[in-house]
Specification:
The complex is a heterodimer of chains A (359) and B (524). Chain A is globular, with a radius of gyration of 26 Å. With 359 residues, chain A is mainly alpha-helical. Chain A has a two-stranded antiparallel sheet with strand order 1-2. Chain A folds into three domains: 196 residues, no CATH class; 68 residues; 55 residues, no CATH class. Helices cover 65% and strands 4% of the residues of chain A. Chain B has 524 residues and is of the alpha/beta class. Chain B has two domains: 233 residues, P-loop containing nucleotide triphosphate hydrolases (Rossmann fold), CATH 3.40.50.300; 245 residues, Rossmann fold (3-Layer(aba) Sandwich), CATH 3.40.50. In chain B, 38% of the residues lie in helices and 23% in strands. In chain B, a hairpin with a 5-residue loop joins strand 9 and strand 10. The radius of gyration of chain B is 24 Å and the shape is globular. Classes of the chains: A mainly alpha (359), B alpha/beta (524). Chains A and B meet through helix 6 and helix 7 of A and helix 3, strand 6, helix 4, helix 5 and helix 14 of B. Chain B: Pfam families: ABC_tran. Chain B: Keywords: ATP-binding, Nucleotide-binding, Transport. Chain B: This is ATP-binding cassette domain-containing protein.
């Protein structure tokens, strides 16, 4: 066997494509069983393939967030009601409200259908959140930013730096709050805020200057050896690309626009932008250390995500009763839906085990 | 290889550097020294190109790299030849893990993948950090971070390495490690090193040449032995040599020990005077746990009234946790703390301030106003008590100065005055000696001794053994959350040689300070 299946970190883009595929499938259905199976697939894959790095532990947070979403959804329907017809579960008294909030009722009879609807809908949102969480704990978000095309490298680095500033800011806020309690000073509310903000901001500014100096002395932003003509070509390609994408997207969404401006224009725009990125990337005098390889396990994981999304769409079109079950019967699951969940699991199983870091 | 010609640098009208000439040759370690605030960092910045780009000001003169002028070249275009490691290495890290950080500079240079891989492996071995390769940079200790920072520059194979106070934040052992690494690079790879440092005791033996900034913008360049004869900043060993009238001056402990053979017989060792002090702070079974790391494990500690206690130990040994737990606002998992019979954790912030004062590691965290006068007025409610205190600690700080523009020593004094204005009976200081030169440390130790004489009990966390010898009565050494030794300075220092000041290393215990030796020499 070649080295592709030895323990290593999978390309982050593969994980994100897979997770977004699951998200797409979740948006195409309100069937609670299908949704729960998708969550189950995501959880299984995370427990099998996450690394022991800090971000690997974040999945539990997202599951918690999903639960909170479902609960809030249910509580909202109980409190504000607004559903009529169906089986009454509990006949709560309606709280009379003044006229100026017409259309809003408090409490009132509680219908089983309303609760089911809220549950299904909440579950769908929760599934989407949990799938994004799965991607987050499987692939370091910073590595994802680093996989941008070479031409966008500078922006990628800036984003990575910006992401790491947040925990530092929290850290310095905690430190300054503790330090300010050590001295007497203004207790007035506005001035107390200033007492806290000034040192934190000064600290943040000093840190950014130090980081900028450090990056500069290590060669960040060294000028390549491109000619003005090359720079002009790249610039023109990028502008055409941007314009094409804007016009094309508008025409696709606005059905009254001439059709020639729609898909052909969009394709032209995307093509020009891609050419611009390639042309810009070619003259970047920079290399990448141990780039994440894209091998067949990556392809398998990404493909399974795309397939799951496509099947979800197919079910919503051709098996409407499965995708959006009635509220007065137990939802059914079809063979295609089962196949979809199996696919969501099988793709990632082809991936290699993660590289473990002894901390 | 690198040549500075007639470098003049000024903000507005007062020159920081005035007509500086300096050459660094291949495979040479040049030490830049002088009191704080004379422009050591500025001089290094001129070499790396960060000055005046990141500092403002006007620069005249020329910088030559192998005969080519680079004074108008941006730092990023000098990166392949000149590597720079700043004062706080953690602030300059761009990536997350050790391996990526080592590769970052090479990626910018556009080196081929095989070369990068090879150099990363070589550098990991060279600096002895191979087992850290996948670690998160933020979880490393100070010494490890410093070595990674040096490594991340070395992978670019620069010809000159510029370091700004690489050991100032490190404990004695980590500092030795970093210096040993540097000498190895100079000897084995023929790398040139330009190093700024005002704590000379460890660096001087390794330096080939020294560049001494005098404060009027001029520099003296020469052999360390010659320059130190009348330098304003000298390590204790040179002070000892001056007191004993040795010529040439000894630069290493080994030299001095050979000279001191007859000195030991001429002198009567100082007599230990221990006076029993009332216990001001009692700590019993103190535990502090952060997440899954145990910062302190059943620590018992007594601070005497009117005594200065030094708290020492490796970076991350739990010193800050102990100090904040004693102050009362820090996390405490278990155990008992009593300061004059009261647990500070039970008091409100104001009550705490009146009982236990704390100067945090970063004194600037305390400051938030535009002038020194405003800060003082905010702290004492306009009674003028704080300003009086500040004038007694460090006289002559102008009222209208911005606290950020003060020197390290002056800023520390201001923070100290802000804390002391509530008249605490216990004073805690977290690494106050960082960034202080010999003169400022001398002033600080005078202040602490004065407070102790007034009956205040002082606990000061520090890495600086020379400062401990000067200022402290007792020492507590922490390691991995435990107290490993505690007692009077002379006894603890005799027990653990790695915490011994230079005078003890030369003359043996119970000698601690140069002034003790000098007093005896004057008497005889």
């Amino acid at each position: 066997m070649s080295g592709t299946r030895l323990p290593r970190d999978l390309h982050p883009v593969a994980w994100w494509v897979w997770a977004l595929g699951l998200c797409a499938a979740a948006t195409f259905t309100t069937n609670p069983f299908v949704l729960l199976m998708l969550v189950g697939a995501a959880a299984t894959v995370v427990s099998l393939r996450r690394s022991d790095q800090p971000w690997g532990r974040s999945f539990r947070l997202y599951v918690g967030l999903g639960l909170v979403i479902v609960v809030i959804r249910l509580a909202f329907w109980v409190v504000f009601g607004g559903w009529t017809g169906g089986h009454v579960l509990l006949d709560l008294p309606t709280v009379p409200l003044p006229d100026w909030v017409a259309g809003v009722t408090l409490l009132g009879p509680l219908y089983a259908e309303a609760l089911l609807f809220a549950l299904y809908d909440g579950l769908r949102l929760a599934t989407i959140v949990i799938c994004v969480g799965a991607a987050n704990s499987l692939a370091n978000p910073k590595r994802l930013l680093r996989s941008v095309p070479p031409a966008l490298y500078e922006i990628g680095t800036a984003l990575v730096v910006a992401v790491s500033v947040l925990p530092q800011l929290a850290d310095s806020a905690r430190r300054v709050r503790a330090a300010q309690a050590l001295r007497a000073g203004d207790t007035h509310r506005v001035r107390r805020l200033r007492r806290f903000l000034v040192p934190v901001l000064e600290d943040a500014l000093e840190r950014s200057l130090a980081l900028a100096a450090g990056m500069d002395t290590r060669g960040y932003g060294r000028s390549g050896d491109s000619t003005p003509a090359q720079r002009r070509t790249t610039g023109a390609l990028m502008l055409v690309g941007l314009g094409g994408i804007c016009v094309g997207t508008y025409a696709v969404l606005d059905t009254t626009a001439p059709r020639v401006l729609a898909l052909p224009m969009l394709a032209l725009g995307v093509g020009a932008a891609a050419a611009g990125l390639v042309s810009a990337g070619r003259r970047v005098g920079r290399s990448r250390y141990r780039p994440d390889p894209w091998q067949w396990p990556e392809a398998a994981v990404a493909a399974s995500g795309v397939l799951v999304g496509a099947l979800g769409w197919w079910i919503s079109r051709h098996q409407v009763a499965i995708a959006y079950p009635d509220l007065d019967a137990v939802p059914q699951v079809s063979a295609v839906a089962l196949l979809m969940v199996v696919l969501a699991l099988v793709g990632p199983l082809a991936s290699p085990a993660p590289r473990l870091v002894a901390a | 290889m690198i040549e500075l010609r007639g470098i003049t640098f000024r903000y507005d009208d007062d020159p920081v550097l005035d007509g500086v000439d300096l050459t660094v040759d291949e495979g040479e370690l040049v030490l830049v020294s002088g009191p704080t605030g004379v422009g050591k960092s500025t001089l290094l910045g001129v070499v790396t190109g960060l000055v005046p780009r990141f500092s403002g000001g006007t620069l005249d003169g020329d910088v030559l790299l192998d005969g080519t002028s680079i004074v108008r070249t941006a730092p990023r275009e000098r990166a392949h030849a000149i590597g720079y490691v700043g004062q706080n290495p953690a602030a300059g890290f761009v990536t997350d893990t050790v391996e990526e950080e080592l590769a970052y500079g090479m990626e910018q240079l556009g080196l081929p993948a095989e070369t990068m891989r090879r150099r990363v492996e070589e550098t990991l071995d060279l600096l002895g950090i191979a087992d850290l390769r996948a670690r998160d940079l933020r979880t490393l200790s100070g010494g490890q971070q410093q070595r990674v920072a040096i490594g991340s520059v070395l992978t670019m194979h620069p010809r000159l390495l510029v370091l700004d106070e690489p050991t100032s934040a490190l404990d004695p052992t980590a500092a030795e490690e970093v210096l040993a690494t540097l000498t190895r690079l100079v000897h084995d790879l023929g790398l040139s090193v330009l190093l700024a440092e005002h704590r000379l005791e460890r660096v001087v033996p390794f330096a080939d040449r020294m560049c001494l900034l005098t404060g009027d913008g001029r520099v003296h360049v020469g052999e360390p032995g010659e320059l130190l004869v009348d330098s304003p900043v000298v390590p204790p060993i040179v002070e000892l040599g001056r007191a004993a009238g040795w010529s040439p001056l000894p630069l290493s402990v080994r030299d001095a020990r050979r000279r001191a053979r007859d000195l030991g017989e001429r002198l009567r060792p100082p007599v230990e005077t221990t006076s029993a002090a009332a216990a001001a702070v009692e700590v019993r079974g103190l535990q502090v746990v952060h997440g899954r790391t145990v910062a302190l494990r059943d620590v018992d500690l007594t601070l005497g009234a009117g005594r200065v206690t030094a708290l020492m130990g490796r970076n991350g040994a739990g010193k800050s946790s102990l100090i904040w737990a004693l102050q009362g606002s820090g996390r405490r998992t278990g155990g008992r703390v009593e300061a004059w019979g009261t647990d500070p954790a039970d008091l409100d912030p104001e009550g705490r301030r009146a009982l236990v004062g704390l100067v945090p590691q970063n004194a600037a965290d305390l400051l938030y106003l535009e002038t020194v006068a405003d800060e003082c007025a905010a702290a004492d409610g306009g009674s003028g008590a704080c300003r009086d205190l500040l004038d007694r600690l460090v006289p002559g700080i102008p009222d209208d100065q911005h606290p950020r523009d003060l020197s390290e020593g002056q800023r520390l004094a201001l923070a100290l005055a802000l804390v002391l204005v509530s008249r605490p009976r216990v004073l805690l200081l977290d690494e106050p000696t960082r960034g202080l030169d010999y003169a400022a440390k001398h002033v600080l130790s005078g202040i602490l001794r004065g407070l102790a004489a007034d009956g205040c009990s002082v606990l000061v966390a520090t890495h600086d053994v020379e400062f401990v010898a000067q200022a402290a009565d007792d020492v507590v050494v922490l390691a991995d959350g435990d107290v490993v030794s505690s007692g009077p300075v002379r006894r603890v220092v005799a027990e653990s040689p790695s915490f011994a000041p230079q005078v003890t290393k030369v003359l043996g215990p119970p000698w601690l300070r140069v002034d003790e030796v000098a007093a005896q020499l004057d008497a005889s």
